[in-house]
Amino acid sequence: MLADHLKGRLARPLLLILLLTGLSTVYARGVYQEPEEFVTEAFAGKVPKTQRIWLSGELGNTYRQVMQEAPPQLRLRYWKRETRSVWILQAIGKEHPITAGFIVERGRLQLAKVLTFRENRGWEIRYPFFTNQFQQVGLGEQGQLDTHIDAITGATLSVRAMNHMARMALLLAKQVGDTHVTP
Amino acid sequence: MNTHFKRPLIAAILMSPLSAIAATQPEINQLQQQVSELEQRIEALGDATDARPMGSSPTTIGGYGELHYNNLENQLVGGTDKKEIDFHRFVLFFGHEFNSHTRLFTELELEHTLSGDGQPGEVELEQAYVEFDLNDQMNARGGLFLIPIGLINETHEPPTFYGVERNPVEKNIIPATWWEAGVGFSHHMANGISYDLALHSGLYAADYNIRGSRQKVAKAKADALAYTARIKWTGIPGLELSATLNHQTDIRQDTMAKSVAADLLEAHAVFNTGPFAIRALYAQWTLDDDGTATGKDEQNGWYIEPSYKVDDKWGVFARLNTWDNQAGDSADSEYQQTDLGVNYWPHQDVVIKLDYQDQSTPTGTSEYDGINLGIGYQF
Fold first, then answer.
1. pTM for this one?
2. ipTM (interface predicted TM)
């Protein structure tokens, strides 16, 4: 009976799957843009000198509180020119780290972009229909995001990770002297 | 090690106003030199840690669990009440990334604490598949995986849904949690549309009991396989529209003269806006009648669940559930259940739940009304 199926009705979808598998170029899912490329675009090719901020002491505690995980490194690289700063952050979604880039200007997010995503659920967060929600988001009085970010069903943890990173990027920008932070 | 602490200490003391008077210029120069060297060492240490990859271990562990207390009165005359406490599910996930485009997912579950002969529980392997990335939008998988259907079948960690018990519609109609073995393919597109295709093992039942026909990939009969296709749209944040078709070529698995093919159609919508959310799901089985169906050739159900998140810690919900596993005839076989409840999240990955359920069931069947209390977690 199984053999009959494989010869008959099952053969077509099986062949289709095998064909798709065979024809597609196998390469890594997840790396959508390298951080260096993101930074270059953020400054229109004129990248300022890389700076580093220590995630120790009070800032380290803030990082743990906001991101709900320990800093992955002692220092965090960032790039800043005048009122614009660029941050590359990383947070665990469900199992794997999500890497995202943030451009902050005058205390508000100009762009949020998922650079690397390796979770098996929550892929929606990488697309502009989700990340566009972060544009012009700032910090509220309690240090929370001042705009509600609509979640995606089945992507709760990935959305949460993005919210944490967006908030952290704004707090870090404030830390390095974004004097136009609102409110 | 001591030297590292002594030098800045001595420097601080000597640089204080009183000591500065006593310190000679060569000493000051020497101290400045030492401070400079110390700064260089700290920078070197920072550079060394920066050079470490930020990625996590290729092997990951996760899990979830839920403890339930049911205090339900059976409205059936002579029926038995359900007053029990049960650690319903203890689940561990293990994952491993072999390389950047090949990974493993597994899920091992212990239900009802004890398993074995005469014990109430089971040890179940619910997921164990290898996933291959074909490109950044497509992947294929092979192994034992959850059927891509409904709302709760793939995402059922306790903090992610309302109600102590999983909703009865997906439990009795779909039937969640439902896993099979086979091959699958998924394609996610930038406009928020995704689709999944799967060829997998099928249900097996001598009768028309859908939930009881899950073989759970335990020496499962594979004479008649099954197909699943799902299309989903999540192009607007907060909105999800999805439909799944599952086709069973023969739930008799070629053990009887007459085969019984079956089709399951499921559709659902989810809409979240601010603190408000609403979920609605409809599912329907249509089975061939080999003369023994007695109304079970049609089985269907639906639910609608509005909810309101008061703040990050509190949420309330209501749910109206209707299901009928014998809808193919005119007999009174429809069940209804209304749930009202509250979720409290002391931490975003921990939830305490309380709800009240009120059932309306066919004449002569158990009808459970009462409260459910639970605590759940995920990590």
1. 0.82
2. 0.73
